[in-house]
Amino acid sequence: MTPELLAQGARRVAKRLDEKPASTDSGGRDASYGRIHKQDELDLAHGRILYLEDVSVSFDGFKAINNLSLDIAPGELRCIIGPNGAGKTTLMDIITGKTRPDAGRVFFGSTIDLLRHNEPEIAQLGIGRKFQKPTVFENLSVFENLELALKTPKSVRASVFFRLDSAQSDRLAHVLDTIHLADSMRTQAGQLSHGQKQWLEIGMLLMQDPKLLLLDEPVAGMTDLETERTAELFLSLKGQHSLMVVEHDMGFIQTISDIVTVLCDGAVLAQGTLEQVQSDERVIEVYLGR
Ligand SMILES: Nc1ncnc2c1ncn2[C@@H]1O[C@H](COP(=O)(O)OP(=O)(O)O)[C@@H](O)[C@H]1O
Ligand SMILES: [Mg+2]
């Protein structure tokens, strides 16, 4: 972790402490008792929502991820860039439980050890993932797709009886606005443009109110206008959700990024603002070209 990131974490924690209601001279209960956490409750006290330390994974002797350490702050929108084969998708596979690392630690908040959970459990804990190809239900309407995203496997079976409660209806309306599909809610998903299908899939993730969203090459294949609207969408999500976005589109990264992490050979090569990493000789060498 760089000193800059450490300082950022400290500022965030200080800010949160400032926001607490005034307490007694002794600091009140918060000071006298260690906070007791229920298992699987997200603890953001250390100013990070995701934390990877010295993670490695090999495929047939090839180190796809090599001693990777990384952390993400609550509400942060982190961009990950790097050459093909750098390990970006594998990183997401590890966070979501699809791939088990050979070594290292992966924590969600400071108390949830993700390596002790399987893929469905990790999704339940609040980590949503969008793959490159949209996987919406083409024969269903936009509305029905979003509605379906709320159903647990059990309620899908009993779906004849499934009705949205008012909080869920509000949520659906809010998501429709967020993904710019309110005017198309009765449209069959199969009729949507490529970009709209991507937004619908993001909307389906949002229906579950994930705390962390992982997005792998979200603007690949989008028109310039769709890419622009996706940038707006991500900027509107940041703060309420934490996002990890893998992209090659540098214009898009420029619009949305605060901190950019450059992956190469399964490890962090550089990290900083886009301007900083773009002027880093090693990054130019392996990725950006001269
Ligand atoms: N399940 C797997 N089995 C074997 N090799 C894999 C597997 N997943 C990824 N790899 C290899 O790991 C490396 C990193 O791949 P990936 O994470 O997809 O890179 P990126 O997304 O940065 O392009 C590549 O060399 C890829 O071939
Ligand atoms: Mg990839």
Strand order of the largest sheet: 6-7-8-3-9-10
Helical element count?
Answer: 12
CATH topology title of one domain: Rossmann fold
What is the CATH class name of one domain? Alpha Beta
Structural class: alpha/beta
Distance between the termini: 28 Å
> Which of globular, elongated, flat, extended, rod-shaped describes the shape?
globular
Q: Bound compounds, please?
A: adenosine-5'-diphosphate, magnesium ion
The largest pleated sheet is described as: 6 strands, mixed
Low-confidence runs of at least 5 consecutive residues: 17-35
What is the share of helical residues? 25-40%
Number of strands: 10
Please name the defining characteristics of this protein:
single chain, 290 residues, Rossmann fold, 6-stranded mixed sheet, 4-stranded antiparallel sheet, 38% helix
Structure summarized in a few sentences:
This protein has 290 residues and is an alpha/beta fold. Helix content is 38%, strand content 20%. Helix 5 runs parallel beside helix 8.
Question: Would you kindly provide a written description of the structure presented here, covering whatever features stand out?
Answer:
This protein has 290 residues and is an alpha/beta fold. It has a domain at 75-87 and 126-288: 3-Layer(aba) Sandwich (Rossmann fold), CATH 3.40.50.300. The chain is built from 12 helices and 10 strands. It has a 6-stranded mixed beta sheet, with helices on both faces. Strands 2-1-4-5 form a 4-stranded antiparallel beta sheet, with helices on one face. Residues 17-35 have low confidence and may be disordered. Magnesium ion is lined by residues 88-89. Residues 88-89 line the site of magnesium ion.
